[in-house]
Design a protein that fits this description.
With about 210 residues, the protein is of the alpha+beta class. The protein has 3 helices and 8 strands, in the order αββββαββαββ. It has one domain: Immunoglobulin-like (Sandwich). Helix content is about 20%, strand content about 40%. Strands 1, 2, 3, 4, 5, 6, 7 and 8 form an 8-stranded mixed beta sheet that branches. A hairpin with a 2-residue loop joins β5 and β6.
């Protein structure tokens, strides 16, 4: 009996330690219905670089017009890990610089559009894209930034961007209000179009997610 009483505190200590160990395990496990971590949903693998890669002429079904104009064409590529993603959205942002702007004009312009996608299957080589109208390039300047933000169930699960010129050293410039909402920056609507709603929808359509 004395030996049992002597060992009893040791058993109690072991029990308490085990209890806390199991508590830690359950505390770390996600509760049912909890959203999966962003890293388990998707990963951005590539995106259009600025420069010649982002400038294209519109596709033509016949003889190409001698008045061909440059369009800004941007893609983001990503891979997904769940069997299906029911709904996701991508916000695309493009920034241009017009060094010839007058004192009465804003030097920088930001164009953005959000595309919605449904039933995105698990796999690699997903693509989504947008195009910038020629008039935007001709009137408002040269492209200096492109970014994409991917959302699932309203949660940001991936973002990436490229910058040139004044944006080259700016980390996540697309999410920095001191840049995109600066006094010398204007936000313009209607110039950045979803690829599926432009003439470029005719080019390799099966390689791209179709917005809804």
């Amino acid at each position: 009996m004395k030996r049992f009483k002597t060992c009893l505190p040791a058993f109690m200590v072991v029990g308490v330690v085990a209890l806390f160990s199991f508590s830690d395990i359950f505390a770390q496990a996600p509760a049912p219905g909890t959203a999966a971590p962003a890293a388990s949903l998707l990963r951005i693998t590539d995106m259009t670089k600025l420069g010649k890669d982002a400038l294209q002429r519109a596709p033509s079904l016949g003889n190409r017009s001698p008045k061909g104009r440059n369009w800004g064409v941007f893609d983001v590529e990503f891979e997904t890990y769940p069997q299906w993603i029911d709904d996701m959205s991508i916000t695309f942002t493009v920034m241009v610089d017009n060094p010839r702007a007058t004192e009465n004009e804003k030097r920088f312009s930001v164009f953005s559009v959000t595309s919605l996608y449904r039933d995105v299957a698990m796999g690699r080589d997903h693509k989504a894209g947008v195009v910038l109208l020629p008039a935007a390039l001709e009137r408002y300047g040269n492209m200096i930034g492109f970014a994409a933000q991917l959302y699932v169930n309203g949660e940001l699960v991936g973002e990436a961007g490229v910058g040139d010129g004044l944006l080259r050293a700016q980390d996540k410039w697309w999410a920095n209000p001191q840049i995109v909402s600066a006094p010398n920056v204007q936000k313009l609507e209607g110039y950045l179009l979803e690829r599926s709603k432009s003439i470029f929808a005719l080019v390799d359509p099966d390689s791209y997610e179709v917005s809804r």
